[in-house]
Amino acid sequence: MSLDAETRQQLLDSISRFVRERLRPLEDKVAEDDAVPTEIIQEMRELGLFGLAIPEEFGGLGLSMEDECLTMFEMGKTSPAFRSVFGTNVGIGSQGIVMFGTDEQKSEWLPGLASGEIIASFALTEPEAGSDAGSVRTTAVRDGDDYVINGTKRYITNANKANVFTLMARTNPDVKGAKGVSSFIVPSDLPGISLGAPEKKMGQQGAHICDVNFDNVRVPARLRLGDEGMGFINAMQILERGRLHISAVCVGVAERLIADCVAYAAERKQFGQPIGEFQLVQGMLADSKTEAYAGRCMVMDAARRRDAGEEIGTEASCSKYFCSEMVGRVADRAVQIYGGAGYIADYGIERLYRDVRIFRLYEGTSQIQQVVIARNMLRDAG
Q1: Catalytic residue at 363?
Q2: Global pTM value
Q3: Which of 27, 126, 255, 363 is catalytic?
Protein backbone atom coordinates (compact mmCIF):
# COMPACT_ATOMS: atom_id res chain seq x y z
CA MET A 1 0.00 0.00 0.00
CA SER A 2 1.30 3.45 -0.91
CA LEU A 3 0.78 6.05 1.79
CA ASP A 4 -0.76 9.40 0.98
CA ALA A 5 1.74 12.26 0.98
CA GLU A 6 0.79 13.60 4.42
CA THR A 7 0.86 10.21 6.17
CA ARG A 8 4.13 9.33 4.49
CA GLN A 9 5.75 12.57 5.64
CA GLN A 10 4.51 12.04 9.20
CA LEU A 11 6.07 8.56 9.21
CA LEU A 12 9.38 9.80 7.80
CA ASP A 13 9.47 12.70 10.26
CA SER A 14 8.88 10.28 13.15
CA ILE A 15 11.67 7.97 11.97
CA SER A 16 14.04 10.87 11.38
CA ARG A 17 13.40 12.26 14.86
CA PHE A 18 13.83 8.80 16.41
CA VAL A 19 17.16 8.37 14.64
CA ARG A 20 18.37 11.84 15.55
CA GLU A 21 17.22 12.03 19.16
CA ARG A 22 17.28 8.42 20.36
CA LEU A 23 19.60 6.31 18.22
CA ARG A 24 22.59 8.44 17.24
CA PRO A 25 23.38 9.40 20.86
CA LEU A 26 23.57 5.67 21.70
CA GLU A 27 25.84 4.56 18.84
CA ASP A 28 29.03 4.38 20.92
CA LYS A 29 27.28 2.58 23.79
CA VAL A 30 25.78 -0.03 21.48
CA ALA A 31 29.18 -0.67 19.91
CA GLU A 32 30.87 -0.98 23.30
CA ASP A 33 28.17 -3.16 24.87
CA ASP A 34 27.49 -5.17 21.69
CA ALA A 35 23.80 -4.82 22.49
CA VAL A 36 20.86 -2.58 21.63
CA PRO A 37 19.05 -1.42 24.81
CA THR A 38 15.73 -3.13 25.47
CA GLU A 39 13.94 0.19 25.80
CA ILE A 40 15.02 1.13 22.29
CA ILE A 41 13.68 -2.16 20.94
CA GLN A 42 10.36 -1.44 22.63
CA GLU A 43 10.26 2.00 21.03
CA MET A 44 10.88 0.35 17.66
CA ARG A 45 7.88 -1.88 18.29
CA GLU A 46 5.72 1.13 19.14
CA LEU A 47 6.80 2.89 15.95
CA GLY A 48 5.71 -0.13 13.92
CA LEU A 49 9.18 -0.80 12.53
CA PHE A 50 8.90 -4.58 12.86
CA GLY A 51 5.84 -4.64 10.61
CA LEU A 52 6.79 -2.20 7.86
CA ALA A 53 6.24 -4.70 5.04
CA ILE A 54 3.61 -6.93 6.68
CA PRO A 55 0.03 -6.34 5.46
CA GLU A 56 -2.27 -4.20 7.58
CA GLU A 57 -4.74 -7.05 8.04
CA PHE A 58 -2.08 -8.82 10.12
CA GLY A 59 -1.11 -5.78 12.18
CA GLY A 60 1.66 -4.37 10.00
CA LEU A 61 1.96 -1.08 8.15
CA GLY A 62 1.87 -2.79 4.75
CA LEU A 63 4.14 -0.23 3.14
CA SER A 64 4.81 -0.14 -0.56
CA MET A 65 8.37 -0.83 -1.67
CA GLU A 66 8.85 2.88 -2.34
CA ASP A 67 7.69 3.86 1.15
CA GLU A 68 9.81 1.12 2.74
CA CYS A 69 12.89 2.42 0.92
CA LEU A 70 12.17 6.01 1.98
CA THR A 71 11.97 4.76 5.56
CA MET A 72 15.28 2.93 5.20
CA PHE A 73 16.96 6.08 3.84
CA GLU A 74 16.21 7.60 7.25
CA MET A 75 17.18 4.50 9.27
CA GLY A 76 20.48 4.39 7.41
CA LYS A 77 21.53 7.63 9.04
CA THR A 78 22.51 5.83 12.21
CA SER A 79 24.47 2.69 13.06
CA PRO A 80 23.25 -0.20 10.87
CA ALA A 81 23.08 -2.37 13.99
CA PHE A 82 19.83 -0.64 14.95
CA ARG A 83 18.16 -1.63 11.68
CA SER A 84 19.28 -5.22 12.15
CA VAL A 85 17.07 -5.44 15.24
CA PHE A 86 13.94 -5.40 13.09
CA GLY A 87 15.39 -5.91 9.61
CA THR A 88 14.85 -9.66 9.46
CA ASN A 89 11.20 -9.23 10.47
CA VAL A 90 10.66 -6.69 7.72
CA GLY A 91 12.36 -8.63 4.94
CA ILE A 92 13.84 -12.07 4.67
CA GLY A 93 12.33 -13.39 7.90
CA SER A 94 8.68 -12.58 7.16
CA GLN A 95 8.33 -12.14 3.42
CA GLY A 96 8.35 -15.87 2.73
CA ILE A 97 5.19 -16.14 4.82
CA VAL A 98 3.68 -12.99 3.25
CA MET A 99 4.39 -14.18 -0.29
CA PHE A 100 3.96 -17.94 -0.07
CA GLY A 101 2.26 -18.77 3.23
CA THR A 102 -1.17 -20.34 3.59
CA ASP A 103 -3.96 -18.38 5.27
CA GLU A 104 -3.37 -20.47 8.39
CA GLN A 105 0.37 -19.75 8.39
CA LYS A 106 -0.18 -16.04 7.90
CA SER A 107 -2.71 -15.83 10.72
CA GLU A 108 -0.47 -17.83 13.05
CA TRP A 109 2.80 -15.93 12.50
CA LEU A 110 2.39 -12.52 10.89
CA PRO A 111 0.65 -10.63 13.73
CA GLY A 112 3.45 -11.52 16.15
CA LEU A 113 6.11 -10.65 13.58
CA ALA A 114 4.42 -7.30 12.87
CA SER A 115 4.30 -6.37 16.55
CA GLY A 116 7.87 -7.47 17.21
CA GLU A 117 6.77 -10.01 19.80
CA ILE A 118 8.14 -12.68 17.45
CA ILE A 119 11.62 -12.30 15.94
CA ALA A 120 12.32 -14.06 12.66
CA SER A 121 15.56 -15.19 11.03
CA PHE A 122 16.31 -16.38 7.52
CA ALA A 123 18.30 -19.62 7.53
CA LEU A 124 19.80 -20.20 4.09
CA THR A 125 23.61 -19.94 4.31
CA GLU A 126 25.61 -23.03 5.28
CA PRO A 127 29.29 -23.89 5.67
CA GLU A 128 29.26 -25.13 2.05
CA ALA A 129 26.41 -23.02 0.66
CA GLY A 130 26.50 -19.25 0.58
CA SER A 131 26.75 -17.65 -2.81
CA ASP A 132 26.01 -21.12 -4.23
CA ALA A 133 22.66 -21.24 -2.50
CA GLY A 134 21.49 -24.14 -4.65
CA SER A 135 23.99 -26.49 -2.99
CA VAL A 136 22.14 -26.55 0.35
CA ARG A 137 22.99 -29.72 2.27
CA THR A 138 20.63 -29.41 5.23
CA THR A 139 18.05 -32.16 4.71
CA ALA A 140 14.33 -32.35 5.40
CA VAL A 141 13.08 -35.94 5.12
CA ARG A 142 9.34 -36.59 5.14
CA ASP A 143 8.22 -38.90 7.94
CA GLY A 144 4.44 -39.14 8.19
CA ASP A 145 3.02 -35.75 9.12
CA ASP A 146 6.48 -34.31 9.86
CA TYR A 147 9.75 -33.48 8.19
CA VAL A 148 12.92 -34.49 10.02
CA ILE A 149 15.59 -31.82 9.57
CA ASN A 150 19.35 -32.25 9.94
CA GLY A 151 22.14 -29.85 9.12
CA THR A 152 23.88 -26.60 10.07
CA LYS A 153 23.18 -23.03 9.03
CA ARG A 154 25.91 -20.40 9.28
CA TYR A 155 26.10 -16.61 9.85
CA ILE A 156 22.39 -16.37 10.65
CA THR A 157 21.44 -12.83 11.68
CA ASN A 158 19.36 -12.56 14.88
CA ALA A 159 19.51 -16.34 15.36
CA ASN A 160 20.14 -15.95 19.09
CA LYS A 161 16.97 -13.87 19.43
CA ALA A 162 14.80 -15.68 16.89
CA ASN A 163 11.49 -17.29 17.75
CA VAL A 164 11.14 -18.68 14.25
CA PHE A 165 13.35 -19.46 11.25
CA THR A 166 12.49 -19.37 7.58
CA LEU A 167 14.59 -22.40 6.67
CA MET A 168 15.83 -23.71 3.33
CA ALA A 169 16.45 -27.47 3.29
CA ARG A 170 16.83 -30.23 0.70
CA THR A 171 13.69 -32.38 0.52
CA ASN A 172 14.75 -34.37 -2.53
CA PRO A 173 18.35 -35.65 -2.33
CA ASP A 174 18.02 -37.17 -5.80
CA VAL A 175 17.54 -33.75 -7.40
CA LYS A 176 20.78 -31.80 -7.51
CA GLY A 177 20.91 -28.03 -7.35
CA ALA A 178 18.13 -25.62 -6.55
CA LYS A 179 15.16 -27.75 -7.61
CA GLY A 180 15.53 -30.13 -4.66
CA VAL A 181 15.26 -27.36 -2.02
CA SER A 182 12.11 -26.50 -0.07
CA SER A 183 11.34 -23.83 2.54
CA PHE A 184 9.89 -24.20 6.03
CA ILE A 185 8.67 -22.19 8.99
CA VAL A 186 10.63 -23.62 11.92
CA PRO A 187 9.88 -22.51 15.51
CA SER A 188 13.17 -22.04 17.34
CA ASP A 189 12.06 -23.92 20.47
CA LEU A 190 11.69 -27.30 18.76
CA PRO A 191 13.78 -30.12 20.27
CA GLY A 192 17.07 -30.65 18.47
CA ILE A 193 17.81 -27.01 17.64
CA SER A 194 20.98 -25.56 19.15
CA LEU A 195 22.97 -22.37 18.56
CA GLY A 196 26.65 -21.65 18.23
CA ALA A 197 28.23 -18.75 20.08
CA PRO A 198 27.72 -15.32 18.48
CA GLU A 199 30.54 -14.57 16.05
CA LYS A 200 33.04 -11.78 16.67
CA LYS A 201 32.64 -9.45 13.72
CA MET A 202 34.48 -6.67 11.93
CA GLY A 203 31.63 -4.23 12.51
CA GLN A 204 27.97 -3.76 13.38
CA GLN A 205 28.42 -4.57 17.06
CA GLY A 206 24.97 -4.93 18.57
CA ALA A 207 23.79 -7.07 15.65
CA HIS A 208 24.47 -10.75 16.21
CA ILE A 209 25.06 -13.75 13.94
CA CYS A 210 25.67 -17.37 14.86
CA ASP A 211 25.38 -20.94 13.63
CA VAL A 212 22.12 -22.85 13.99
CA ASN A 213 22.31 -26.64 14.28
CA PHE A 214 19.43 -28.99 13.48
CA ASP A 215 19.67 -32.50 14.92
CA ASN A 216 16.66 -34.66 13.99
CA VAL A 217 14.31 -31.71 14.37
CA ARG A 218 10.72 -32.70 13.67
CA VAL A 219 8.79 -29.97 11.87
CA PRO A 220 5.09 -30.45 11.10
CA ALA A 221 4.46 -30.72 7.36
CA ARG A 222 1.85 -27.98 7.66
CA LEU A 223 4.75 -25.55 8.23
CA ARG A 224 6.26 -26.12 4.80
CA LEU A 225 6.13 -22.89 2.78
CA GLY A 226 4.71 -23.55 -0.65
CA ASP A 227 5.26 -26.72 -2.66
CA GLU A 228 8.20 -29.06 -2.34
CA GLY A 229 11.10 -28.03 -4.52
CA MET A 230 10.10 -24.36 -4.64
CA GLY A 231 12.32 -23.19 -1.77
CA PHE A 232 15.12 -21.75 -3.89
CA ILE A 233 12.72 -19.91 -6.19
CA ASN A 234 10.92 -18.56 -3.14
CA ALA A 235 14.22 -17.45 -1.60
CA MET A 236 15.23 -15.53 -4.72
CA GLN A 237 11.95 -13.63 -4.74
CA ILE A 238 12.36 -12.83 -1.05
CA LEU A 239 15.93 -11.64 -1.63
CA GLU A 240 14.83 -9.43 -4.52
CA ARG A 241 12.86 -7.27 -2.13
CA GLY A 242 15.59 -7.52 0.48
CA ARG A 243 18.18 -6.24 -1.96
CA LEU A 244 16.25 -3.03 -2.47
CA HIS A 245 15.84 -2.68 1.29
CA ILE A 246 19.60 -3.02 1.83
CA SER A 247 20.31 -0.67 -1.07
CA ALA A 248 18.22 2.00 0.62
CA VAL A 249 20.09 1.51 3.89
CA CYS A 250 23.39 1.93 2.01
CA VAL A 251 22.17 5.22 0.57
CA GLY A 252 21.11 6.42 4.01
CA VAL A 253 24.49 5.63 5.55
CA ALA A 254 26.24 7.36 2.64
CA GLU A 255 24.12 10.48 3.09
CA ARG A 256 24.87 10.54 6.81
CA LEU A 257 28.62 10.23 6.14
CA ILE A 258 28.46 13.00 3.55
CA ALA A 259 26.65 15.34 5.95
CA ASP A 260 29.26 14.62 8.63
CA CYS A 261 32.08 15.26 6.14
CA VAL A 262 30.62 18.56 4.98
CA ALA A 263 30.25 19.78 8.56
CA TYR A 264 33.81 18.71 9.41
CA ALA A 265 35.30 20.22 6.25
CA ALA A 266 33.61 23.53 7.02
CA GLU A 267 35.12 23.83 10.50
CA ARG A 268 38.44 21.96 10.40
CA LYS A 269 41.26 24.35 9.47
CA GLN A 270 44.64 23.73 7.87
CA PHE A 271 46.99 26.29 6.35
CA GLY A 272 44.82 29.04 7.78
CA GLN A 273 41.52 28.07 6.17
CA PRO A 274 38.78 25.41 6.38
CA ILE A 275 39.81 22.24 4.58
CA GLY A 276 36.59 22.48 2.59
CA GLU A 277 38.20 25.35 0.69
CA PHE A 278 40.77 23.00 -0.82
CA GLN A 279 39.75 21.69 -4.21
CA LEU A 280 41.01 18.15 -3.62
CA VAL A 281 38.72 17.90 -0.58
CA GLN A 282 35.90 19.41 -2.61
CA GLY A 283 36.51 16.73 -5.22
CA MET A 284 36.01 13.97 -2.66
CA LEU A 285 32.83 15.62 -1.37
CA ALA A 286 31.51 16.03 -4.89
CA ASP A 287 32.26 12.41 -5.83
CA SER A 288 30.47 11.15 -2.74
CA LYS A 289 27.44 13.36 -3.28
CA THR A 290 27.18 12.35 -6.92
CA GLU A 291 27.38 8.64 -6.18
CA ALA A 292 24.89 8.81 -3.30
CA TYR A 293 22.45 10.72 -5.51
CA ALA A 294 22.81 8.12 -8.24
CA GLY A 295 22.17 5.37 -5.69
CA ARG A 296 19.04 7.09 -4.37
CA CYS A 297 17.70 7.48 -7.90
CA MET A 298 18.36 3.81 -8.71
CA VAL A 299 16.61 2.59 -5.57
CA MET A 300 13.56 4.79 -6.07
CA ASP A 301 13.21 3.83 -9.72
CA ALA A 302 13.44 0.10 -8.98
CA ALA A 303 11.05 0.40 -6.01
CA ARG A 304 8.44 2.22 -8.09
CA ARG A 305 8.75 -0.34 -10.86
CA ARG A 306 8.21 -3.15 -8.37
CA ASP A 307 5.16 -1.41 -6.92
CA ALA A 308 3.80 -1.12 -10.46
CA GLY A 309 4.05 -4.88 -10.84
CA GLU A 310 7.10 -4.99 -13.10
CA GLU A 311 9.74 -7.71 -12.92
CA ILE A 312 12.76 -5.98 -11.36
CA GLY A 313 15.25 -8.76 -10.70
CA THR A 314 17.92 -7.03 -12.76
CA GLU A 315 17.21 -3.60 -11.32
CA ALA A 316 17.26 -4.91 -7.73
CA SER A 317 20.67 -6.49 -8.34
CA CYS A 318 21.94 -3.33 -10.05
CA SER A 319 20.86 -1.29 -7.04
CA LYS A 320 22.36 -3.69 -4.50
CA TYR A 321 25.63 -3.91 -6.44
CA PHE A 322 26.03 -0.19 -6.97
CA CYS A 323 24.81 1.05 -3.58
CA SER A 324 26.80 -1.41 -1.47
CA GLU A 325 29.98 -0.61 -3.40
CA MET A 326 29.17 3.10 -3.37
CA VAL A 327 28.79 3.38 0.40
CA GLY A 328 32.17 1.68 0.82
CA ARG A 329 33.78 4.34 -1.34
CA VAL A 330 31.98 7.11 0.51
CA ALA A 331 33.13 5.72 3.87
CA ASP A 332 36.70 5.47 2.60
CA ARG A 333 36.64 9.11 1.47
CA ALA A 334 35.17 10.10 4.82
CA VAL A 335 38.17 8.65 6.63
CA GLN A 336 40.42 10.55 4.21
CA ILE A 337 38.61 13.85 4.71
CA TYR A 338 38.75 13.50 8.48
CA GLY A 339 42.42 12.53 8.26
CA GLY A 340 43.83 11.22 11.53
CA ALA A 341 40.52 11.95 13.25
CA GLY A 342 38.80 9.58 10.87
CA TYR A 343 40.97 6.74 12.15
CA ILE A 344 40.14 7.52 15.79
CA ALA A 345 37.11 5.93 17.42
CA ASP A 346 35.88 9.16 19.02
CA TYR A 347 34.45 10.50 15.75
CA GLY A 348 32.54 7.38 14.72
CA ILE A 349 33.81 7.49 11.14
CA GLU A 350 36.02 4.41 11.52
CA ARG A 351 33.09 2.53 13.04
CA LEU A 352 30.86 3.26 10.05
CA TYR A 353 33.77 2.40 7.74
CA ARG A 354 33.78 -1.08 9.29
CA ASP A 355 30.01 -1.32 9.52
CA VAL A 356 29.35 -0.83 5.82
CA ARG A 357 31.79 -3.50 4.63
CA ILE A 358 29.21 -6.24 5.17
CA PHE A 359 26.81 -4.69 2.68
CA ARG A 360 28.93 -6.00 -0.19
CA LEU A 361 28.56 -9.53 1.16
CA TYR A 362 25.11 -10.35 2.44
CA GLU A 363 21.91 -10.86 0.44
CA GLY A 364 24.20 -11.75 -2.45
CA THR A 365 27.81 -10.61 -2.83
CA SER A 366 28.75 -7.97 -5.40
CA GLN A 367 30.06 -10.75 -7.62
CA ILE A 368 26.77 -12.64 -7.41
CA GLN A 369 24.95 -9.44 -8.39
CA GLN A 370 27.23 -9.12 -11.42
CA VAL A 371 26.40 -12.69 -12.42
CA VAL A 372 22.65 -12.13 -11.97
CA ILE A 373 22.71 -8.90 -13.98
CA ALA A 374 24.75 -10.35 -16.84
CA ARG A 375 22.75 -13.58 -17.06
CA ASN A 376 19.50 -11.64 -17.15
CA MET A 377 20.89 -9.42 -19.89
CA LEU A 378 21.90 -12.43 -21.98
CA ARG A 379 18.59 -14.18 -21.34
CA ASP A 380 16.64 -11.11 -22.41
CA ALA A 381 18.79 -10.74 -25.52
CA GLY A 382 17.96 -14.29 -26.54
Answers
A1: yes
A2: 0.95
A3: 363
